[in-house]
Prior knowledge:
Layout: E1 10-12, E2 20-22, E3 26-29, E4 34-36, E5 50-53, E6 57-60, E7 79-81, E8 85-89, E9 98-101, E10 105-107, E11 111-116, H1 122-130, H2 132-139, H3 154-158, E12 161-164, H4 167-212, E13 220-222, E14 230-232
Antiparallel strand pairs: 1-2, 3-12, 4-11, 5-6, 7-10, 8-9, 8-11, 13-14
Amino acid sequence: MAMIRPETEMKDSGIQWIGDIPNNWNIKPLYACLDEINQKNNPIVTTNILSLTNTDGVIPYSERGNQGNKSKENFEEYKVVYPNTIVANSMNILIGSVGLSKYEGCVSPVYYVYMAKPQVDIRYMNYLFQMEPFQKRLRQFANGILEIRLRVSSHDILHQKVAVPDYDEQQAIADYLDETCSKIDEIIAEAKASVDEYKELKQSVIFEAVTKGLDKDIEMKNSEVVGMGFIPKRHI
Length: 236
């Protein structure tokens, strides 16, 4: 779904992955828009451990269940996160492991935490981090041996140049994306639920056919096999 906007004069951004931008927008390095928060949780500010997932963003670790790495019990080793800050995993940001926190809490030291400078909408910045072209750009600065553990430094992230409109337009774009992406997420959730239902139906059809046959009127007997139930009674 494309955003409908009035015709406006465009100019070359000078950045290949961005292309043309509206004439009244500016190109700025991210450090002009964001400040990194490097506050250690020592003395302890919070014991609310947060986790970052590609699907749910920043959530309390307790809501993650048994997925992911086990949290440490030494809270002093963590980094403090505040509401309306961006949390990015230094080793997974290339696959979209970045999100906007609604919570005060703490995260692993391998995470970066960013807050917005004045006249910057943190939601707009978060959507920028979500873009695949931006993530692909960051890949050029990644270091590491394993493909799944390529790390990008905060310095390299903050020195990336991005397109930035004025504050009012940032807010308007963020409002639009909040509403539109929420609707798209609902559609995706409904579609996934339908897919899961059809997968269950497929399994049920296969199970019935290979354990019960196609004749619904045939006499049945107990298979005495756990999980199989009754099977057709055959007479030899």
